Structures
1.
Amino acid sequence: MKKWLYIVLLTVLPLVSMAQDYYDVGVKHIKITTSSELNDKQELIICPMDLMEDGFCFPLPNCKILSPYGMRNGRMHSGWDIKTYANDTIRCAFEGEVVLSQWFADYGNCVIVRHPNGLETLYSHNVKNLVKKGEKVKAGTPLSLEGHTGRATGDHLHFETRVSNQHFDPNLLFDFENHCLRKDCLRITKKKSGIKVKKIK
Ligand SMILES: [Zn+2]
């Protein structure tokens, strides 16, 4: 095989396989300095029904799930990937305050909203952010137009739930199949490297 062809194949083949397998590549975790950190003795109880009191909006109606939270190809995937089409409007899940609205190499354009109970939701790979840090938002407020900025191979929303700068599985709060909230409350405590999240039965 000609040397130049070999080099082209070596360069292109991993990109092709990446496009087929997944949509973002274990984006490098970003921390925000203003996060309300849990201390060792604190616990945070998050109840979906309390969150709903001030309204709830599924961030992206008519969506299709691409990829869940968890280990993926040996790397941690820190959120859920939800299929979008370019310029779809992403809406805020609950009321709160925008604590971050900026661009990162991996996340692309990214928005993080802190809700009154300490939960934070993250929306990324946006083609354009529509809100600024410090803005108060309500459930349903348009936050961004979606795209595939950052390390993404197709238009999608990378959605995270976080407490104390640590991500946890959004599926514990959101029913992605039915676009609603789950019923169980969550008890969140600090552990050595991160947080522990347990359902309260
Ligand atoms: Zn993702």
2.
Amino acid sequence: MSRHSQEDHTAGQLRVLQSLSRGRLLSRVVRWLTDTHGRGGRSILDSSLDIIAGDRSSVSVTSLVGALMLRGILEMGTRAFGGSLADIRENLSNVLFRRALSSVITGLVDFGPQRPFTPGAPFQVVWNVTRTCNLRCKHCYENAGRRGRDELDTEQALRAIDIMADEGVVFLAFSGGEPTLRPDILTLIRRAADRGMYVAAATNGTTFADRERVRRFKEAGLSFAQISLDGVNAETHDSFRGVPGAFARTIEGIKNCVAEGLFVEIAMTVTHYNLHEVPKAIELAERLGARWFMIYNFVPIGRGAEIADADLTPSEREELLRLLWDRISSKSDPGAMEVLTTAPQLGRVPLEAARDSTLPGCQTGEMIFPTHFSNARLPSQMTRLSEFIGGCGAGRFYLAMEPNGDLYPCVFFPHTPEVRIGNILHDDLHKIWRQSGVLRMLRDKDLLKDHCGSCENRYVCGGCRARAIQYFGDLLAPDPGCKYNAAAWNALRTGEMLAVTGLGIQRTVSH
Ligand code: SF4
Ligand code: SF4
């Protein structure tokens, strides 16, 4: 599809979404579906989705009428993106998919058809549930070690989980510190799973060297284990993690999680310390049976600020993205491990590949659009969907929560009052999500500065906002890790940019 016809197509998709959300009759119908509550306090929207999925347990006259209207609306929406109701009906049997779709529909009504799109509630909350940790990682964003004095107690933590579940959060990831060391963690996992959320833990994996422990976590409702591995041998990993023997226990932990049938993601934070080990790390992750291999973009925050010099240059990052793209675009076995990254710039790589047919990945009639959480293969008329899903999800798809319940747009944001958006127990999450000035700013990619602001890829990427704020003290600044922002990177390196802004980290980046 040519670029012009793709743009026409996107405009058509936007028009359909606009008529769905702004057309008076349609918007009234959708508003009625989302605002009216039936049996057990569930919205008519949720019980109508149950009915379309074939689940009749909450059927009533109102929900039947709702299901009828909703079916028409879904047909219109899916057709605009080249799909059909049949495509999504298959997935509707999955409760999590229904929860996510309900959030998409609510977001369409409450926020309109923006590029990128904002759902009715955060899809995912990453909760740094404790500051306790048994390792001393060089790049720890949380500066973890000892338990914090203000951490929520069990009763408060359970209340926080209920608030998130009522609001429609789909994924809850317990992180830290080391979340598995929190004494009541199984109680919290159980409550989150019972309340219908998909439960993940981001762990250093060492405590999972005990297989019986993994079994207990799984029984409590843990579905997903994200395990950090920063090198392919003890020398690299242990020196990065600050404790000898960590590598061996982490590998054991990964094997146990795979053996117990958890969805295992191996996460590698790439810096100058381990860049050269990436290809071998991908091979190792595959051999260990991981389902995802996630390259974490380094953000120099917490203890990471002390090793800011280890950040990749824009050209090193570009080379890494190309290496990942080669791997993603040449994957032939759909069941094989997915390679992903939190660097939002990956979102522009397939679009650039489509513009330049000498690059791999665009010769097959279908295109791949990579995001943090999936490398979906879609027919070319659907690839512009990536502009709605977008790149950086801070404050749009995700929120982060601190051990005391304070909320931030992303775990990599500094803990400053300017970007703290509230507290789960003291403020209203529903209102925060709709009214926070910080979140509104993050959702509008047209506000971005310098090259990020004029970049044709800003809807699919937008740069990592955590890196922008950490380097420049400005939410809207350019992400200096991108090839298009090499001037900003060079200015940081020479100190010019710090002189201009007077903000950012207190040292310049050097090679
Ligand atoms: S300039 Fe900004 S928006 Fe464009 S690709 Fe680079 S980081 Fe992403
Ligand atoms: S700021 Fe955005 S791109 Fe950066 S880590 Fe957070 S969600 Fe990801």
